[in-house]
Design a protein that fits this description.
Layout (H helix, E strand, L loop, with lengths): L2 H6 L2 H17 L6 H29 L3 H25 L6 H29 L2 E2 L2 H20 L14 H25 L23 H35 L6 H23 L3 H26 L13 H18 L3 E2 L1 H19 L2
Antiparallel strand pairs: 1-2
Length: about 375
């Protein structure tokens, strides 16, 4: 390993995955007091940070836009794992957990991540430019996916409540997966240049950071797998504490999904903000919109399969307040992404919408 590789993988990122798995083995299946729960929570947070770090190392090796794609998929794997583990032990009260988490991920990425990236990026660079073709295309795919998966269940009549019948859920899962697959093909093969930072050609070497060696990339891939195992297991252990904390502050149980999404997406938010401050807002948009699409395109099919053996109903349809916020999010994103240029004004609008989402999640 050369000196650059040592800097690429700080010591803590090498230790956390191993310590996370050891902590998981030591606490699995045991009744925990408040102090062990604190340790588990710290281990969970550190494992998430380390997982995204190693995903970034692998992403740096393969270059853009493959890098943001790998990071988005890695984050979504963590999200899906958390949802399935919590639903498997939550019973009927976890019926809406998948919907709440996916919706929260969309609001966080499309408003929080984009808004924060635009504000911090434009404060430094005044105006930031991006490819309309890539950003607007991603938004079109995302809008179709979220409508088919989270809006339609509220209006279908085959089953009662905000649910899909078996065939309807299968169609939504296949449609989401197909749309995501086509998007990945366009992003990485057919029109890769639409998703590169403005001024970067598709065949140019990504020079904003030195690529790690093959040895480091493979090591990070292995450590990423360990991190994911630790995250899934530790989340299972910490889930009763998360639910108790939400109920203790008087927030609705749906806020559990918001907490999960915030936890999983926090490191990715930092990555998007770093890219924006380097005047690479296209990378920030790729991360935000790509994560939102991966959240639906991968979560809905997996949850659909998991519902075969998970007990209880699966509520996917959004309520009236959520649909209003979703419609507002789509409109604001269309207006922001339609010109290829953004200023601090657009970022401020996104953050206000995000603030409204957080406020209404706590006080519906």
């Amino acid at each position: 390993m050369n000196p650059g590789d040592v800097a690429t993988n700080p010591r803590w990122t090498l230790l956390v995955p191993v310590l996370g798995v050891i902590l998981l083995v030591a606490t699995w299946g045991r009744e925990l007091g408040w102090f062990p729960v604190v340790i588990v929570s710290l281990g969970l947070g550190a494992s998430v940070l380390a997982a995204v770090h190693h995903a970034e190392i692998v992403a740096l090796r393969v270059g853009e836009p493959f890098g943001t794609l790998i990071l988005a998929v890695a984050v979504t794997v963590i999200e899906v794992a958390l949802i399935v583990t919590l639903m498997s032990s939550g019973g009927d009260k976890a019926a809406s957990l998948a919907r709440d988490t996916v919706f929260a991920a969309i609001m966080i990425t499309c408003n929080g991540v984009i808004g924060l990236s635009l504000i911090l990026g434009t404060i430094r660079h005044r105006v930031q430019e991006f490819h309309v073709e890539g950003a607007s295309g991603a938004l079109a795919v995302l809008t179709a996916m979220v409508t088919l998966s989270l809006v339609l269940p509220t209006f279908t009549s085959t089953t009662a409540g905000p649910t899909f019948s078996g065939p309807q859920l299968a169609f939504a899962g296949v449609a989401s997966l197909a749309l995501y697959g086509v998007f990945v093909f366009v992003q990485t093969v057919r029109h890769r240049d639409y998703f590169l930072p403005v001024g970067t050609a598709a065949d140019e070497e990504d020079v904003h950071a030195a690529a790690p060696s093959d040895r480091t990339a493979w090591a990070s891939l292995g450590l990423l797998v360990l991190c994911l195992v630790a995250v899934v297991g530790l989340a299972k252990i910490a889930s009763p504490t998360i639910e108790s904390g939400v109920l203790a502050v008087g927030a609705p149980i749906s806020s559990v999904g918001v907490v999960i999404a915030l936890l999983v997406l926090a490191p990715e938010t930092l990555a998007a903000v770093r890219a924006a401050r380097l005047n690479r807002i296209q990378t920030s948009l790729n991360l935000a919109l790509g994560s939102a699409m991966a959240s639906i395109g991968l979560t809905i099919p997996v949850i659909g399969l998991a519902s075969i053996w998970l007990a209880g109903p699966l509520h996917l349809g959004l309520g009236g307040t959520e649909m209003v916020l979703l419609a507002l999010t789509v409109v604001v994103n269309v207006l922001t992404l339609s010109t290829g240029r953004a200023t601090v004004l657009q970022g401020s609008v996104h953050l206000v919408v995000f603030s409204a989402f957080l406020f209404l999640a706590i006080s519906p």
